[in-house]
Write a structure and sequence with these properties.
14% helix, Maltoporin, Chain A, 2 domains, globular, 823 residues, 22-stranded antiparallel beta barrel, Beta-barrel_TonB, transmembrane beta strand
């Protein structure tokens, strides 16, 4: 693999920086804004932080830029800065980043990025270079509808902020310190142009990234991850265009466009393991772990359609600040996504028998069973998932004030309408060619099958929020949201059934098999069914994926309606001008990924049931009740906050690591925890800070009672800390640490064979920037001590009976250089 188009301009720029360091640029030091001056837009309208009875965090552009200097992805940046959020893992997915043990709803400019196919790539589909700030509201909320059972992350893209024409340019280079080969380097080029001219403003920004190999702490190339997908060896384009026109003093129309395209470009194949004799030649990654097997990078991948993420969105906003004495906010958006995954081995399994050889063995006196097993090898299927979604989103909100006894009652009310269509297919590749090539050659067979039904979801909702301050020190809030979700599921044919039936029908045509069936007094179908049952028993636990079926049936889809009335209430009390206490209750509502739940519906799971799939499978909405109570204070040189939380639901989603199936369980879940944050400015030059989060949870199992939730659900105890030193106008430096504690409660209390005993780790980063006569040079070292460890995701997926191909180490130490200039 050769990557060149970003290298030349980056090298030229980096070599020209050495003589440019001086002491001219001043920097803001410790003037933290007062609580009432911090504005939040993640609540449907712009409000001051001081009025919100929630745990709220705002991350500004300077902090995003500083963290991005390390080459860290957005999920990793947020994992470092947000106490209750799980740590990042360098994958394209944020599936394992729960917030307070629940799912997050990601917004971009107020538009929810959810779809009815719950693929968690929201945090990897926008570059940090295109972000102005990020707002996080922790705890279940229905402000934006279904999905926010853990909280909301609102990403606000850059807009024009200065009169006239302005430019921002950025160049970046990241390399491994353990192997500095050019193939292990990553490059970044970003450019903004913005303008404000009278009533018109615009900003266009583009970010280009080319990532090389990821290298571990021993200097070895990390193998390709075929599961959640790491971002090594990817090419990324992220383009945004935001514009606005001030129609009058009270009216403004704005539009936003984003185009995101990321595709893997690697010559390294994923490693599913050596064939296992115990499982008739299946690769270990299909059937389970064997000893201390470690996936290796395999050169020579031949795959035309590599994993990719493509996303396009268009948003239109209209604001009228004097709509019959109210503020009208209307928003419409359209979004499409097209996602490809890495081809993956999976169900169904087959036993490929040489029937001529089996007949010969029988003719030599061997028993039928011995002859068949002696002439057989196990086979699998290898398919690539593709997901396509389209989403239409329309919102209208009115913000008004009514005077009551000289005090304002604030009301925000409106309606939401969302239409979401999703479809997932599986593209089959030639399994025998793939195995014969040593897992490197992937040629399509021409077969494309369903991976679950095509699904359309229509959401309609009405909401009302009220705010009132009966006395100056007390602010009360309460609200209601009524939401209906209508789901239409098309009739579909199970992809597993199609692949399974095609194999057995090809076997039925074998004349040697037909002869053996007759000798045993059976029809060919009966004999093949009998033999398949014998082979399934010999394969033990994975035998459930081996089932004779030579027919394919169409499963009836149908429709299902969900509705919920969701309530929230809270209060904020000012202890004094610098301190507040708050308490709140909120309800969240989510409909699980129906296509994912139905993806595994096949002859293996329902014996070709004739019932509509929405009736024959456990599918229901999940409602979460959440309580939040906390304290926050902001003083001249000190910022402090602390919060406790508790949330509860009567259902849970369980991912069965052994089967790869998602299941909705009718069992209660309770999650609780504590978060704390401190930032201190010790002198004009020295600052420090830390965050702490503790999350635990239990679920009530019929067989075991209350047992602890696994580490992938409740993030292990997390501590972050930093110490910074700055000389205004010259440089600033920051040493930061992230620590995750061991978490083994779920392993001890639950199913130890499938629940990982998480092993914690501590990493350090060093971030430094220098002010130049023109521009800023940033130098960062990530994983400063070259710590050898595994992210949570890799430990979960690599333990112990599935996903061995993801049992991969984290990156070792990296060095990053970044130059940026505003002009």
């Amino acid at each position: 693999m050769t990557k060149t188009f970003l290298k030349l301009p980056l090298y030229c720029a980096m070599f020209g920086l050495g003589s440019m360091v001086n002491t001219t640029h001043a920097e803001d030091t410790n003037a933290e804004p007062a609580l009432e001056k911090q504005l939040v837009t993640a609540t449907r309208t712009t409000e001051g932080l001081a009025s919100l009875p929630y745990t709220v965090q705002i991350i500004d552009q300077d902090e995003i830029t500083r963290q991005a200097t390390t080459g860290q992805e957005l999920g990793g940046i947020l994992g470092q800065l947000v106490p209750g959020l799980g740590a990042g893992d360098n994958s394209v997915s944020n599936y394992y980043q729960s917030l307070r043990g629940r799912g997050i709803l990601v917004l971009i400019d107020g538009i929810a990025q959810r779809s009815n196919r719950g693929v968690s790539r929201q945090l990897s589909t926008i570059s940090p270079s295109n972000i102005e700030r990020i707002e996080i509201i922790s705890g279940a909320t229905a402000i934006y509808g279904a999905g926010a059972t853990g909280g909301v992350i609102n990403i606000i893209t850059k807009k024009a902020s200065q009169d006239g024409l302005t430019f921002h340019s950025e160049l970046g280079l990241t390399m491994s310190t353990e192997d500095r080969d050019s193939e292990n380097q990553s490059y970044k080029l970003a450019q903004d142009v913005a303008g404000k001219f009278g009533k018109f403003d615009f900003l266009a920004g583009i970010s280009l990234e080319q990532r090389g190999n990821y290298v571990d702490s021993d200097g070895d190339r990390i193998a390709t991850d075929p599961n959640q997908l790491a971002r090594d060896n990817t090419d990324t384009v992220d383009f945004i265009l935001n514009g606005g026109y001030q129609i009058s003093d009270t009216r403004k129309i704005s539009a936003g466009l984003q185009y995101f395209d990321e595709e893997m470009d690697t010559d390294a194949a994923a490693d599913f393991g050596e064939p296992s004799a115990a499982y008739l030649g299946l690769p270990l990654g299909v059937v389970g772990k064997s000893g201390d097997y470690e996936p290796q990078s395999i050169d020579g991948l031949k795959l035309n359609q590599q994993p990719a993420t493509k996303r396009q969105s268009f948003t239109l906003d209209f604001t009228e600040e004097n709509f019959f004495g109210q503020t009208l906010i209307a928003q419409a958006s359209y979004r499409e996504q097209d996602l490809y995954f890495y081809p993956y081995l999976g169900a169904p399994l087959f036993i490929q028998t040489d029937w001529a050889q089996a007949a010969s063995f029988i003719g030599q006196g061997a028993s039928t069973t011995a002859a068949i097993f002696g002439s057989s090898a196990a086979g699998s299927t290898i398919t690539q998932s593709r997901i396509e979604t389209t989403t239409l989103d329309f919102k209208v909100a009115l913000d008004s004030k009514i005077e009551i006894d000289g005090k304002d009652l604030g009301l925000t009310y409106g309606i939401d309408y969302i239409q979401d269509k999703g479809n997932q297919t599986s593209i089959e590749y030639n399994y025998n060619e793939y195995i014969a090539s040593g897992q490197t050659t992937l040629n399509k067979t021409g077969t494309v099958v369903n991976a679950g039904p095509e699904t359309e979801t229509t959401t309609q909702a009405a909401f009302l929020q009220a705010q009132f301050a009966p006395v100056e020190a007390l602010t009360l809030r309460a609200g209601l949201r009524y939401e209906t979700i209508h789901v239409e599921v098309d009739d579909f044919v199970s992809g597993d059934d199609v692949l399974n039936a095609a194999f057995y029908n090809s076997q039925l045509e074998d004349t040697n098999l037909q002869t053996l069936a007759g000798l045993n007094g059976m029809t060919t179908n009966q004999f093949l069914d009998y033999v398949t049952d014998l082979e399934a028993g010999a394969l033990g636990g994975v035998g459930s994926y081996l089932k004779y079926s030579d027919t394919v049936s169409t499963r009836e889809g149908g429709s299902k309606d969900f509705d919920a009335t969701l309530f929230n209430a809270g209060a904020v009390y000012d202890l004094n001008k610098a301190q507040q206490v708050y308490i709140s209750f909120g309800q969240g509502f989510t409909v699980p990924d129906i296509t994912r739940l139905l993806r595994n519906v096949s002859v293996f799971t329902d014996n070709a049931s004739s019932e509509p799939v929405l009736e024959s499978n456990n599918i229901d909405a999940i409602k979460t009740n959440s309580w939040d109570f906390g304290w926050r204070g902001q003083f001249d040189s000190l910022e402090l906050s602390a919060a406790g939380f508790f949330n509860r639901s009567d259902k849970s989603i369980y991912f069965n690591a052994s089967t790869g199936e998602a299941e909705l369980l009718d069992q209660e879940e309770e999650i609780w925890g504590f978060e704390g944050l401190v930032n201190a400015y010790l002198t004009d030059n020295i600052n420090t800070g830390a965050t702490y989060s503790y999350t635990r949870g239990k679920t009530r199992s019929e067989g075991s009672g209350w047992v602890s939730l696994p580490a992938e659900r409740v993030s292990p105890q997390k501590i972050t800390a930093h110490l910074g030193y700055q000389m205004p106008g010259i440089f600033n430096t920051r040493l930061q640490a992230l620590h995750l504690s061991d978490y083994k409660e779920a392993h001890r209390e639950g199913n130890s064979a499938t629940t990982v005993p998480f092993v914690g780790y501590t990493t350090f980063d060093l971030l430094t920037s220098f002010e130049l006569p023109k521009g800023t040079l940033g130098i960062a070292i990530r994983n400063l001590t070259n710590k050898e460890y595994q992210h949570l995701y890799n430990q979960v997926r690599g333990y112990p009976s599935t996903g061995v191909s993801s049992d991969l180490p984290a990156q070792g130490r990296t060095l990053s250089m970044n130059y940026s200039i505003d002009y």
